[in-house]
Design brief:
By secondary structure, the protein is mostly beta strands. The protein has a single domain, classed as Lipocalin, CATH 2.40.128.110. Helices cover about 15% and strands about 55% of the residues. It contains 2 helices and 11 strands, in the order H-E-E-E-E-E-E-H-E-E-E-E-E. An 8-stranded antiparallel beta barrel has the order 1-4-5-7-8-9-10-11. Strand 2 and strand 3 form a beta hairpin. It starts with a helix and ends with a strand. About 20% of the residues are buried. The N terminus is likely disordered.
């Protein structure tokens, strides 16, 4: 009898914890993945990826989460068409053969109910490496248009492009690339 009560209590607690998590779909109109690279030590080149999709499972009470975001590498945009074509080529993203990049995370750090860090892996050009995104800002609110909760923030990290096999232009174009991710996701 005692084992049955303990098992029931554990199952109830697990159910309660499970009930605290929610799935959020990435809002592509409020989510941007941008990059910055120093251009021959002179100025900062910036670009972004216009198409992305994914979902985040967030449990603020349990201080855990999961994320899976896919980025369409053919959607790179710098505002300079010839440069976009070059970035899609084999010199950089080889978008014809590696059409997408994927970030998968299962380690979320919190301060109170605010996400401060998300750790996982980034797969780019067929290579997977660990990546940790630092949150500069995180918030959840009830969206007046969707009438649902929306959570998101600004995240950033620096990756070493040669770890993904992108070595064109080294060392004139530095190996370290800063990624900035502005994300909002809608509770489902």
């Amino acid at each position: 009898m005692k084992k049955t009560l303990i098992a029931a209590a554990l199952m109830a607690a697990a159910g309660f914890a499970q009930a605290q998590s929610a799935t959020y779909s990435v809002d592509p109109t409020h989510t941007f993945v941008t990059f910055e690279a120093l251009h021959f030590g002179t100025s900062t080149l910036r670009g972004r990826f216009d198409r992305k999709e994914g979902a985040v499972v967030l449990d603020r009470a349990g201080k855990s989460g999961k994320a899976e975001i896919t980025i369409d590498m053919t959607s790179v945009s710098t505002g300079v068409a010839p440069l976009d074509t070059h970035l899609k080529s084999k010199d950089f993203f080889n978008a014809a053969e590696n059409g997408s990049a994927k970030f998968v995370a299962d380690k979320f750090a919190f301060a109170g109910d605010k996400v401060t860090e998300v750790a996982g892996t980034l797969t780019l050009m067929g290579k997977t490496n660990p990546v940790t995104l630092k949150a500069g800002n995180f918030n959840c609110y009830t969206n007046p248009i969707y009438k649902r909760e929306v959570c998101g923030g600004d995240f950033e990290t620096t990756i070493t492009r040669s770890q993904y096999g992108i070595t064109y232009g080294l060392p004139g174009i530095p190996d370290n690339i800063r990624l900035l991710i502005q994300i909002e996701a809608i509770k489902q």
